[in-house]
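RECORD TYPE: protein structure
NAME: MFS family permease
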Amino acid sequence: MMLNALGLLKERRFLPLFTTQFLGAFNDNLFKTSMVLFATYQVFNNPAVESNFNALATGLSLIPFFLLSALSGQLADTTDKAKIIRWVKTAEIGIMLFGGTGLMLARAGYHSIGIGMMLGAVLFLGVHSTFFGPIKYAILPQHLDEDEVLGGTGLVEAGTYLAILLGTVIAGWISVEGASILVLCVAGIGWIMGRLVLPAPRVGPELAINFNPVTSSWRLISATMHIRRLFLAICAISFFWTIGAVLIVVFPPLVKNVLTADERVASLTIAIFSVGVAIGSVIINSMLKGKISAKYSPASVIAMGIFVVAFSIEARNFTPAPDGHLYSVMDFLTHPQSVLVMLTLMAIAITGGMFVVPLYAFLTTTVTKDQTARTVAANNVVNSGAMVLGALLVIVLAALHVSNADMLLAVAAMCLIAAWIAQKLHRACD
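PREDICTED:
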């Protein structure tokens, strides 16, 4: 199915959208990773402070999803989606100019104002993602045939994680000055590609848009969650992203303080995770042969939990670098324990990708085409709440002096809950 879907990359109805979202994910991750690695390795020198900073950055990026997802879903279902893409990509240029300036100021030693501007850019990028997120999935049923939607969704998901891979790797190797320039250039290319996306006008009745963030969010969720399989799919995805939030927050400090490796190793290990999710996306599409089903999701996330426990054990037993030193990439790759660590991390990512991709396909195929953007937006509201809880969990556990390796056990426990929900979804759809 995925191999057949690759043919979509030759077509105007898919390629500009795919490229635009790919560049957006790349740029978002390049900036955020550059910021986190800079703060973790060059500004702070305390594992708890590093985790708290990462949690704060994660939380700020999610605030717009709480406040604006309902509005973004309404706009996407009542306005030409291609037009919204152009608005969003224009805004991205300004955001990256602001954030890049913050990076440069922090690098020059003006830490307070620089970090403030960087965190501000993270907040603005959250707004960017809030308005773009529903569109990249909701536009697919308008531009693709019904039997192409799963393959197209898989390509978008795999492309997103490959973009994260590239952004992560480059963030670990490029200078702060280079990152500041590159994010602005990529935003410009994304703006050009966004203008090539084919029109995707409103297909249902015109909506009376509710601009109140509280009531519109409540109505959005209420209108969506009463559909049982949508409710279960959104809950399962939310638990996955709670798990993801904990991993995102914990990972850089864990690499620095437990695996005692430098920022390039941190980017390498996150890159391995990104490759794994992309591989998982391809595998599950092949196994399901185009059928949208949660058949393999429970087993996939249970396997993910088992691998997370294994990774926690391996981290505890990892032989650290001598005091005052960090392993370089070559030192880490030649470390006798590193191969097992990287294979386990890859396994976590593959099983995670196998779990979540079919669930996203449920969101865009369960409802009519004029409701898809609002459905994805409702999912984003619930997901963002779950991720905030994940970030807060890290802050609480850090305050209780729980180590990063021990936090991984909380992730494994959440995998069991996600498996239970996915099993209920599978039964509800049989």
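COMMENT: The radius of gyration is 21 Å.
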